[in-house]
């Protein structure tokens, strides 16, 4: 059996038909607190693969601080990412949380069985950093 493909995109790209994904790809959300319209855009969601609540709170608070100091949305987002050590903390959560490990294992098994999967969250990574790309790397073994 051949291995499935792994892609990633953001929800607005799906909603506006801007995402170039394999037609057979299962759209898998990786959002901790999805909205109803997010659920409508994806096939399923793994909230345990979203950033942990404490990391999100710290990050969002730091983004707001940077915006109050005059940084644009993208600049504040990316500066806060570095300040709160987002990538390292997110990677740690993927290892430390048994629910995250189980979810990763499930996705890895599905990929190995030939399923094509597209990871989906909110961020457009053209100008902002995102946990989805880290998760993509982890699932592909590019840790």
Outline of the structure:
Residues 22-140 form the DUF488 domain. The protein has 143 residues and is of the alpha/beta class.
Report on this structure.
The structure is a single chain. With 143 residues, this protein is an alpha/beta fold. It has one domain (6-139). Helices cover 51% and strands 11% of the residues. The chain has helices spanning 11-15, 36-41, 53-68, 73-83, 86-96, 98-112, 131-139; strands spanning 6-10, 26-29, 44-45, 117-121. The longest helix is centred in the middle third of the chain and has 16 residues, at 53-68.
Shape: globular
Percent in strands: 5-15%
Q: Between the first and last Cα atoms, what is the distance in angstroms?
A: 25 Å
- How large, in whole angstroms, is the Cα Rg? 15 Å
Compute the average pLDDT.
94
Reading the helices and strands in chain order gives EHEHEHHHHEH
Question: What characteristics describe this protein?
Answer:
143 residues, alpha/beta, four-stranded parallel beta sheet, 7 helices, globular
Set out the fold topology.
Layout: E1 6-10, H1 11-15, E2 26-29, H2 36-41, E3 44-45, H3 53-68, H4 73-83, H5 86-96, H6 98-112, E4 117-121, H7 131-139
Parallel strand pairs: 1-4, 2-3, 2-4
Helix pairs in contact: 3-4, 5-6, 5-7
């Amino acid at each position: 059996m051949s291995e499935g493909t792994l892609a990633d995109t953001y929800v607005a790209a799906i909603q506006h038909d801007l995402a170039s994904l394999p037609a057979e790809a299962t759209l898998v959300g990786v959002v901790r607190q999805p909205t109803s319209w997010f659920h409508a855009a994806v096939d399923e969601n793994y909230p345990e693969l979203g950033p942990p609540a404490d990391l999100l709170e710290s990050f969002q608070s730091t983004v707001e601080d940077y915006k109050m100091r005059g940084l644009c949305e993208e600049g504040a987002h990316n500066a806060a990412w570095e300040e709160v050590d987002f990538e390292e903390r997110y990677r740690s959560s993927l290892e430390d949380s048994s629910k995250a490990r189980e979810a990763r294992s499930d996705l890895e098994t599905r990929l190995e069985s030939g399923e094509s999967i597209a990871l989906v969250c909110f961020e457009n990574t053209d100008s902002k950093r995102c946990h989805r790309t880290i998760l993509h790397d982890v699932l592909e073994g590019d840790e």
